[in-house]
């Protein structure tokens, strides 16, 4: 699958071109899927799944929905309940840091997407996925490069995945206040690097990731040298 796309193929805002093509084929339950947290050093990878109703008016209802990375946290929080209300069905799925360490981030991302699909109130007839294919899924599917910028269903799923994961990481601040999770959400910021070096990894860190693994090795070296 190609990893790049002609910028001319990316609309000013995510639209329904892919959904409408499938709707016209009689596939009325199209699920958009996207993930959040794939590159973080701590916490789960989270996937969102959204099935939109077959109606042109949904474009206006979800006006402002974009790839979650293009929106502020405040705007994502405003849009998430709008998506909940407007969607025919929606769900999120998680894969923990421990699972990521065991099976790897790509399989874990796919597993989170499968878990989101299993929690949908209705079964999808076709999957639109941001840049991924789910080989263990029997449902017909389309992997779209820059899908969160091209498909409204995928963009909506990206917002639900991101808001769910951010809330999860903010809640971890109470249990692990020394890491600043509410601020960086587990990503490799300078603050996170400093906190990790000072305190070592906690239970929700991804120990298979190189920066975390390096801190663990450094701690071992210091212990041996004492």
Compact description:
The protein is an alpha/beta fold. It is built from ten helices and five strands. Helix 4 packs across helix 5.
Structure description:
- The chain has 226 residues and is an alpha/beta fold.
- The chain has two domains: 7-174, Ribonuclease H-like superfamily/Ribonuclease H (Nucleotidyltransferase, domain 5); 177-225, no CATH class.
- Helices cover 46% and strands 13% of the residues.
- It contains ten helices and five strands.
- It has helices at residues 17-23, 58-61, 73-86, 97-103, 105-119, 147-150, 152-175, 181-184, 190-199, 210-225; strands at 30-36, 45-51, 89-95, 126-130, 141-144.
- Strands 3-2-1-4-5 form a five-stranded mixed beta sheet.
- It is elongated, with a radius of gyration of 19 Å.
- The model has no long low-confidence stretch (mean pLDDT 95).
Please report the number of helical segments: 10
What is the fold-level CATH name, i.e. the topology of the largest domain?
Answer: Nucleotidyltransferase, domain 5
Q: How large a portion of the residues is in β-strands, by DSSP E?
A: 5-15%
CATH architecture heading of the largest domain: 2-Layer Sandwich
Per CATH, the class of the largest domain reads Alpha Beta
Q: What number is the mean pLDDT? A: 95
Rounded to the nearest angstrom, the distance between the terminal CA atoms is 51 Å
Q: Mind telling me the C-alpha Rg?
A: 19 Å
Largest sheet: 5 strands, mixed
**By helix and strand content, what is the structural category?**
alpha/beta
The strand line-up of the biggest sheet is 3-2-1-4-5
Multimeric state: single chain
Residues in helix, % = 40-55%
> Topology as H/E string?
HEEHHEHHEEHHHHH
Question: CATH superfamily assignment of the largest domain?
Answer: Ribonuclease H-like superfamily/Ribonuclease H
Poorly predicted ranges (pLDDT <50, ≥5 residues)? none
